[in-house]
Amino acid sequence: MNKKLLIVLSLLILAPLLRGQDLAGYEVVENSEIGLDVAPFEKWGVAVADIDRNDYPDIFTIRWASPGYSRVYLNEDGLYSDITDQTPLESIEANESHTTTVSLVDYDNDGDRDIFFGTDTHMYLLQNNDNVFTDIAESVGLTAGIPGFVNEYQFRMGAWADYDLDGDLDLIVGQQNNPDLLFYRNDDGSFVDIAAELGFEGIADYEGEFNIPQGTRRTRHIAWIDFDMDGDPDLNVGGLIFRNDDGAFTDITEETGFNPSQIEAATWFDYDNDGDLDYFKAVVTGHLNELWENQDGTMVDISQESGVSFGDAYRGVTVGDFENDGDQDIFVQNNNTANYEVLLVNDELDDGRAFADVAEFIGLDVTGDRKGAAFMDYDMDGFLDIYVASAQHQHIMYHNLTVPAHNWVGFMLEGTESNRDAVGTLVKLYTGETMQIRYTQVPNSWQCQDNPYVHFGIGMETSIDSVVIHWSLGLKEVITDVAINQYHKIREGDVSSSVRAENQVTPEAYRLEQNYPNPFNGSTQIRYHLKSSGKANLSIYNLRGELVRTLVERSMTAGEYTVDWDGRSDFGANVSSGVYVYTLKTTGHIESKKMLYLR
């Protein structure tokens, strides 16, 4: 019996329990109960983020075609209010036909999130000043056209990341009628198109397709991922993967074996909890979904054995642990008005993993017009709800009624040296023998930006060993004694292992000082001097040469720094008493010293 059939049979047996909410289920919330007003326009997608940073996720749902206009809703303690009249959306869309790509992002690192979207003819960047929005796209350089007689550029998708690791977010955009990508470097809030400089020209033809198999829809899938887990964001454009090496890009598609077929929407996530990012893509009618497993940098198609190889008219895809069992599930928004959405539950079996669609068993049964969806925790109770955009139903908010037998934890990340939104941050969570990872992206997939916080289900575990945060500029912080079943606000540099700049004087030489105190039994400080800017690594080893803890691994400016070590390993465990070696490595310089730890 194959894996998918086994799961489906189990779910059929459990269906009455699921409907009775003994295990898990969703219910539709009345729009009026949560302040979502009548919005009778043809919707096309959704972005979810905390626009005003009051800890509750807000909603930007976009219009596809006139009449009507996109809407912005702020969330206060689970109750929404429409603030669209504080934006120029109505006047903009009165003169535009189709609104497409969408994201909520703090492009200027000022503490509130701005709105980016595209139409057939323009890009728009609505700068947020105390929840009043002004279009500044043209003034900051976000203008682009294409040669010839085509006058509809059709901006299909835009994705944000700090590709050059300078602390602000850059933007890449795909157009339906342009063979070249638009690649905007963010220079202190002004944007410069460097696509030609980086070689992103002529990737697609004027049908918006790849120069590989027909129908792969390049412009509908652009994602920033850390494919090789080296700390800088790599780029996935449709069926192509480009490795980022210090801001230069190399096409590694062929060497990875990656070759997906028709793509409607796609997303990257660690489906098997092995520490790297795998790939799922949803399709349009006549094609099949695919799941590609990342096996040490080689992409392997496991669609058949994983149970995802089926298809329908799908619009979007997002992932999240809806039952908090420690495995991320896949939600696929169905554009076939007569059929249900798809919720692929991720189940670990004795001989591997497989997915099965449980949507109809757990209450995801609203049909009719739907276009665009996102996982989100609208009431901040730790269980992922689902928002679906609809003209017929105005809004569909599925409230997660999962019985809280499974535990969870969430993190609200805020960059300080890194970008404010913490885009490109890798978070690792250790419980027992299990490691889970999350990599922050904006957006997550085509027409979808989902749950704004890093969310982990931990199943029946009652404690967390450690959480390791790799910020986008390279600072690594380890958190232990993390309380479960709540969200935590984490600011870059506030954890005890953070690096502190002592002064702005440029040292005359590289130097690693003796830790103080030494010996120590609580924590100790290590001071070091960097003569020039560049990548620095400060790590601790035992006397067998085994890596115990990496305290610093990032690009840094010249200066004097201090870092604390609390006697814990990278996994959060207390190390044993003994002698340890700490080593500073920079370009052209390596220096080591010994210290004694006494428990």
Structure notes:
The chain is mostly beta strands. Helix content is 6%, strand content 43%. It is built from 5 helices and 44 strands. The strands form 11 sheets. A 5-stranded mixed sheet has the order 5-4-3-2-32, with no helix packed on it. It has a 4-stranded antiparallel sheet with strand order 1-28-27-26, with no helix packed on it. Strand 24 and strand 25 form a beta hairpin. The longest helix is centred in the first third of the chain and has 17 residues, at 3-19. It is globular, with a radius of gyration of 24 Å. The model is unreliable at 11-23 and 205-217 (pLDDT under 50).
Q: Briefly note the structural class of the backbone.
A: mainly beta
Contiguous low-pLDDT stretches (5 residues minimum) are 11-23, 205-217
CA-to-CA gap between the ends?
Answer: 54 Å
Count of helical regions: 5
Whole-number radius of gyration? 24 Å
Shape: globular
Task: Describe the oligomeric state of these chains in a short phrase.
Answer: single chain
Reported for the largest beta sheet, the result is: 5 strands, mixed
Strand order, main sheet: write it out: 5-4-3-2-32
Helical coverage, percent range: under 10%
**Strand residue content:** 35-45%
According to DSSP, the number of beta strands is 44
Mean pLDDT: 87
